[in-house]
Amino acid sequence: MLRILLINDTAKKVGRLKNALTEAGFEVIDESGLTIDLPERVEAVRPDVILIDTESPSRDVMEQVVLVSRDQPRPIVMFTDEHDPGVMRQAIQSGVSAYIVEGIHAQRLQPILDVAMARFESDQALRAQLQARDAQLAERKRIELAKGLLMKMKSCDEEQAYTLMRRQAMSRQQKLAQVAEQIIAMHDMLGS
Amino acid sequence: MNEHEISRSHPPEKPVLNIGFMALTDAASVIVAATQGFAEKHGLTLNLQRQASWATLRDKLLSGELDAAHSLYGLIYGVQLGLGGAPATDMAVLMGLNQNGQSINLSPALQAAGVSTGSALAQRAHQPGAKLTFAQTFPTGTHAMWLNYWLASQGIHPLNDVDSVVVPPPQMLAHLKAMRIDGFCVGEPWCAQAVNEQMGCTLITSQAIWPDHPEKVLGCTREFAEQYPNSARALIMAVLEASRFIDESEENQRSTAQLLSGSEYVDAPLSAIQPRFLGQYQDGLGHAWQDAHPLRFHAGGAVNQPYLSDGMWFMTQFRRWGLLRDDPDYLAIARQVQQLDLYRQAAEALGIDIPSDMRRSQLLDGQVWDGSDPAAYARSFALHALADAPLSAQQESR
């Protein structure tokens, strides 16, 4: 029977998987201690599979575990046997990363991943959609317009206008496009 | 070709790119390029995606969810060589993002015990009893290499005399407060923040170990660079222009620091980011100085050339510390990873000087690195973990 270690250190409770995986017949150990103790816990538990939130900062600690245990059967990131980017992307997007000890067939992991991914899918925030090409062009035109207005108002050249807009944007933790909108709005209000 | 000709005649094959970064001040040029209108004129839109760990950033690069990312130099070479949790994959360094600006800090307990110099630390490390614990951020990363290099230069064997652990940067202070670590090497703002909160001192900066050392790069898979060369070149141009803009004036640096402190980016107080971003250091031991080799992003292009010698240096240290058990073909691998041609085209179009692809440096222990004989360089250190170092080399080094 595969022994699974759940690393439970983010708001997205990986621990919730425990019941589902136990019901599916796996031995599950839930770990929620300090990050720094992770290598010792992995050494003590000797799991076949380690599941961790993709967004957990402790993933880098797992890298250390992988590197120091390279003379023993070591856990490596589950990239699927076929190394199919589509499957990999799906696993990453579902928000759970799996380490599997070398020598264990990836196929045996599939039921575990199915449970984990099904549990996590509902947790996923709506992913930011790629900005449409149209929106990008519109934004670029607005920046051009604002730059032109500023050049007139400040009697400066193009480079100076960009620099002024960028400094303003950065000081307010905004994007250039936001400052462009403010300049246009101000110009409309004051009239030309 | 100038910048306008090149983006018109070679439009990006992929116009919208997902760009990963970690919440560190040295991600500045990528963040500025994406948010301040530097990419659009090259036909690109850059979607920034902050990552919680280097391991996830790497996995997303390999799966294609990220197209390129602010990356540790050593992470890119670690993946190239198959060191770590991911399968060996051909990687690419598009450009250098920054030099300098990392630090090694010690805990308040060590500081209170009067350990505030390298020699005092060496004495403490060699005392019998519990080993000191030092944290870094990623096993093949730059911080692990600066920490190892510096400890060894003080006569402290980083693998035998101390325990080395990975702690994610935002958790460094919590681990310090819990007295679980005695020191750490990390990027800013975390070292400055520890000093500001009187949680220990900065013992040495990374630029004092190696003035103008390589640090973060713009990394991607080789597959991305080969499949979308125009997108890759346009991305280099956008980040190059942002780098030039940041370094252009102190006023630009100040507003960049303000941008970085935003919750979407580094999410840390301006007081922890701005001083060291401007080269103004305080070490928590009563010293304050204006650093001669502060964090820098451009320096007329000297920062951005993907030097072959920089790439090879990380491989020599992997070899030195036993991560590589044999000598790799240092130069051949560096030539494949460092995207010198794409970089040259981008820099030429912007009229930016392109230095030679090798550079010569002297590190704090007096060792000179110029890329000419990497295998000998990897064997030239008194302290190492070369399993197969010839006996003669070991004796010579004593």
UniProtKB/TrEMBL annotation, chain A:
GO terms for molecular function: RNA binding. Residues 3-117 form the Response regulatory domain. The modification 4-aspartylphosphate is found at residue 53. Gene3D superfamilies: 3.40.50.2300, Winged helix-like DNA-binding domain superfamily/Winged helix DNA-binding domain (1.10.10.10). Residues 123-184 form the ANTAR domain. The keyword Electron transport does not apply. Keywords: Phosphoprotein. Pfam families: ANTAR (PF03861), Response_reg (PF00072). This is Response regulator receiver and ANTAR domain protein. It comes from Pseudomonas peli.
From TrEMBL, chain B:
Pfam families: NMT1_2. SUPFAM superfamilies: Periplasmic binding protein-like II (SSF53850). Its main location: membrane. Keywords: Cell inner membrane, Cell membrane, Membrane, Signal, Transport. It is found in: Endomembrane system. InterPro entries: NrtA/CpmA_ABC-bd_dom. GO terms for cellular component: endomembrane system. It comes from the Bacteria. This is Nitrate/nitrite transport system substrate-binding protein.
